[in-house]
Amino acid sequence: VMGALESRGVLRRMSDMLEVLMKRMDILARLENSTDFHKGDEARFPLDRFQPAAGLMERIQAIAQNVSDIAIKVDQILRNSLLNGKGMDGRRDQCEVPRDPKYPDCAGKVEWMRARWTSDPCYAFFGVDGTECSFLIYLSEVEWFCPPLPWRNRTVAAPSPPPPRAQAAFRRDLARLLELIGTGKESLSFMKKRIRHLAQQWLRAARRLEQKLAGRQRDQKHILIHIGFLTEESGDVFSPRVLKGGPLGEMVQWADILAALFMLGHSLRVTVSLKELQSHLGVPPGRGNCPLTSPLHFDLIYTDYHGLQQMKQHMGLSFKKYRCRVRVIDTFGTEPAYNHEEYATLRGYRTNWGYWNLQPAQFMTMFPHTPDNSFMGFVSEELNQTERQLIKANKVSSMAVVYGKEASIWKGKEKFLAILNKYMEIHGTVYYETQRPPEVPAFVKNHGLLPQHEFQQLLRKAKLFIGFGFPYEGPAPLEAIANGCVFLQARFNPPHSSLNHEFFRGKPTSREATGTAVFQVSSQHPYAEEFIGKPHVWTVDYNNSEEFEAAIKTIMRTQVDPYLPYEYTCEGMLERIHAYIQHQDFCTTSSLPPSPKTKSPAMQSPPSPLALSPNSTHLVWSPGAGGAPQAWPPVASLQAWLSEPQHTCTETCRQHGLVCEPTFFRFLNKEEVFLQLSIACDSTESEMNHLYPAVAQGVRECYLQKEPLLFSCAGSNAKYRRLCPCRDFRQGQVALCRDCL
To answer: Its membrane topology, per UniProt (predicted)?
Structure first.
């Protein structure tokens, strides 16, 4: 009998060899059966190059069977040698898999452990040694698939009350945050410069919010910030391009998130490496198949899609347990239809980035694309009255700055530039190393890549900031408008979406004019077009030279003041993040909406707390409804409206001066709500569909939502009129209702 270590190594090699062979067999089988290789002359390659001979398949199967037999024998040798060598007590020699209906997966998990326990060193770390007893101990005490073993001495101490939470206090200095961010990457240096530049604005905003809250108690949260796209494992393509004109929008947003969380007084840990992430989480050594070594001590984790993937790969079962604490910074948003794995797969919404089955509000966007996600945002610098007057006095009405630091953005824009050059002096900030980029015409004054404060000085002099269609939805147009520029951009006809434009393909959002659309990409910067508009933002057809030229002439004559939406100020961002931290809870089951029963949900639910409004056009929360739920936003802000066909709930609410609020769908997902709106349902079905609850136009068929994760303000169809939950909102702060702070 070989020693335990040698036996374990042999078993691991045999098992890995079997896995490789089986994978190769599967690939060959798929190639053999693939329709792509049975199209005769249309096939890209001749069939006989790929179709394996029957004899070869038989040999592979025979080898695989031999390896399987050897693995089983080595497993038996290993168990016998361990049992003999360790002198374990009698009970450990005689463990049997319990048959407990409360643990239906136990037997299957034990069988898996027998064959694969050497596949990841983390199992040995938790004491698995190849014996049946060690499997059961692991599966009952580390994971939770088997019942506890009665002979295990597991004295469970009575839970002691948790110590009182430290209270969050607004901070008066950002120096400690700069230390937490660390060094070693140009991206980190950029973020720290931005935080230092805006430090006084953050401090003033924190003082104002502190006064608004009037001494309200706030628990200090332990927060991990893991910026996954800056890790080496994700490629970190951003850091090397910081000084070469690369995109900075994500780093702008992360810098502002860090500053806001810190100013609110929470305890932060910041990581930009996988190794640090594993250390902070308590990941056991191995390949990521085991749970964490101890309960997660972070209340919240802010990360991005790259970080989310890294957490899933290394947290084992703990990822599912703790994913409710995650907040995903997601530039363009994730619509519910793409987030729900089963639904996305069945309905064709599956993408590289979706199907996480999170609550849609856990995704936090740069702009308020959809109320289904939480609007995180970023900040632009606020001007005081003296600065505003100085800018107005020094504006040069014939000066334009082009939005685009990369030379490729200028390619093919000669026609627009020639027209613009007839009226204005054109400035660019295109990166170059030694030679002027050939894409930039000679009549353009190119300053090269400018530091942020110098770029801001350029904007303060310019009259016009002009975009050429890319990049989409960045922070620069808001900064230009805040510095007194008019932003001129192209209208996209048809609007760009995942169906017609490569940039959006693969993203978990369609941004279509129909289907799941909320905030369609009808221009380079839809937020500026929809929420700001003229005179600060002009959106025109660049293919129409007359319209383009007329817009330039009008802009030169138009006087505009610097303008910054409140939600993009430091104070506005602090308000939002404070409200989210205090009120958003995706871990308690009571905060999640229940799905209706399959049969006759109305018969099993209490009377509707909604009442018809005085003008009988919509429903409101009844003043007489006792025991209003502890919902956030407060239910008093709820209004329920019925959409027109082909209208999203976002559009429907906006038409009434309101905002769609997806957390209120649970109050509308009942048959009696249709009756209250004078809709008699001939039939009522409960199904998975991101358009439900809704009524089919003309046939009086009513549909309720079966899957709460699919409640969505997005989406429309000519067949349906949707039940839409709307709410009011704070002036200049679309993310929060009037009483949400």
So the answer is: Single-pass type II membrane protein
